[in-house]
Amino acid sequence: MFFGFFFSKSKSMIDYVKDFRIVFFIVIIAIVTIVLGALTDKILRYFLYRKLNDKEYDATGFRFLKHLVITVIYILGFAFALIQIPEFKIIGHSFLAGAGVISLVAGLASQQALSNIVSGIFLVIFKPFKINDKITINNFVGTVEDINLRQVVLKDAENNRIIIPNSVISNQIIVNTNMHDTKCCKIIEIGIGYDSDLEKALEIMKDEIAKHPFFIDTRTKEAKSQKAPLVVARVVALADSSVNLKAWAWAKNSTDGFIMYCDLLQSIKKRFDEAKIDIPYQQRVVTIKQ
Questions:
Q1: Distances from the Cα of 146 to the Cαs of 63, 66, 72, 149, 162, in angstroms?
Q2: How far is it, in rounded angstroms, from Cα 203 to Cα 281?
Q3: Closest CA to 276 of 197, 167, 205
Q4: If you average pLDDT over each of 61-75, 97-111, 112-126, 148-162, which comes out highest?
Q5: Is-contact 166 187, C-beta < 8 A?
Q6: Which of 34, 90, 191, 227 gets the most CB atoms within 10 Å of its CB?
Q7: What domains are defined for the chain?
């Protein structure tokens, strides 16, 4: 009986030692994984910061790769932790050996998480936009700040962050103002009164656009040799209460274009007032019958 008790006690102690050993290794693996992930993130951020000093460098792929590497580190750490637990050893080996990857993918194929990851990979490969591009998606306008495994982060003009899942972007029409050509054309459309001097109004619009510091000349050498006008302004409609004029103003990018557009509305309005050119507003005549 004494030996039975002693044997039972020894067995319990061995089990406690084994459990302690398992917990100890899991804690060590967790600490190493977290430290390695943080260190990798810091190193990659340092190299990314150095690369961003080069304005021609496209950081899109590098940012996505950074997120991917850190994710893989945490997955491997999780797999090594599973190996330490006898009941989960087979699953852990499957993670490391890749034998369970196919079944894992099949099981998650319908899940949004996998869809976002696959969509993010396609976004990085085919590059409909890149970091610092100004894009429009679903009426949201902003500058691409980050692309990771799950989402794209946009920064709008009010400094808000717009978070859009990768899978949503893959199914949407994207307007990219920076793809291949950053030049921006702003259309200035103003209606003047029917009694106003039409030719004078067109000349004022052309003059104000041409002298704006952000305006750029987009004419080709051939167009210049043929004496094409620097600024094009035309009558585009005879509306109910106004003659509508339209002029096309080019800037080197959308930011300059927006500033130029706002400035031109103000300067053209002042010039119209000085030249007594009327900008009509809608009026309604009400007749009361008795």
A1: 7, 11, 19, 10, 11
A2: 22
A3: 197
A4: 148-162
A5: no
A6: 191
A7: 2-109 (no CATH), 128-177 (2.30.30.60), 184-274 (3.30.70.100)
